[in-house]
Design brief:
This protein is mainly alpha-helical and 234 residues long. Helix content is 48%, strand content 7%. The protein is built from 10 helices and 4 strands. The longest helix has 20 residues.
């Protein structure tokens, strides 16, 4: 393996599973996303492919000869920021990327390389994107017949349709609905959701209507036993 990636792996092995401020261990998902962001950006820095805006036109940036992660400089961070701005990423995405790189620079004892979010938003190439939705993207808001759409989906995959119904009925996230074990989660008066939740925090949702009870019963009928979820075993 190339020396650069050996050093990168060593840095990540030593620091990568620690949270930015508390020092506590982070989840596997956060660890994976953080590592993916950094690897992709280092590949762009060293291999070319970075974009930047020049007189309103998108141009491709040169590659950088970066022999070691420890050689990271302010010009490399600025080139990455220019790339994110040229691709018109959202403010939340920019904040996330800046946070990841700020943490990495702290690991290599260069904590001041990454500018603050407010400074980045003041760059000439920054194009403000509203954080308020101006178009209703919900199914009902777009005039979609929700029951009809669910029947259409169920005709090709009943489990996918049930996952969507659970999300709509109980305000579950995709991962929560997919990993839900209907038999074990059904506590009579409420739904006990513990798998796939953020931070593995258990939460409950009342089963208050006949429609909610009917969705749960169909989900229970769809799976093989009490330990099964809506993701097929195969």
């Amino acid at each position: 393996m190339e020396k650069f990636w050996i050093e990168f792996n060593e840095i990540f092995k030593q620091h990568g599973d620690a949270a930015a401020r508390s020092g506590k261990r982070i989840s596997f998902g956060t660890h994976h996303i953080r590592r993916g962001y950094l690897r992709r950006d280092f590949h762009l820095l060293r291999g070319g492919g970075l974009l930047r805006l020049e007189h309103g036109q998108v141009v491709r940036e040169r590659r950088f000869k970066l022999g070691s992660p420890y050689n990271l400089k302010a010009k490399h961070i600025r080139a990455l920021i220019d790339d994110w701005l040229a691709r018109r990423h959202s403010q939340s995405y920019l904040e996330n990327k800046l946070s990841v790189w700020r943490q990495f620079c702290a690991w290599i004892n260069k904590p001041n390389l990454v500018p603050g979010t407010a400074e980045v938003m003041s760059y000439p190439n920054y194009r403000h994107r509203s954080q308020v939705a101006v178009i209703d993207k919900t199914w009902s808001g777009r005039g979609i017949d929700v029951p009809g759409k669910l029947r259409e989906i169920a005709s090709s995959d009943a489990r996918v349709a049930l996952v969507l119904e659970l999300m709509l009925t109980f305000s579950l996230r995709l991962k929560e609905a997919s990993l839900l074990r209907p038999h074990a989660a059904d506590q009579g008066a409420y739904l006990d959701v513990c798998r796939g939740t953020k931070g593995r925090r258990r939460r409950v949702h009342p089963i208050a209507t006949a429609e909610e009870r009917e969705v749960i019963e169909r989900a229970k009928a769809q799976v093989a036993d009490r330990t099964a979820c809506l993701v097929p075993r195969d």
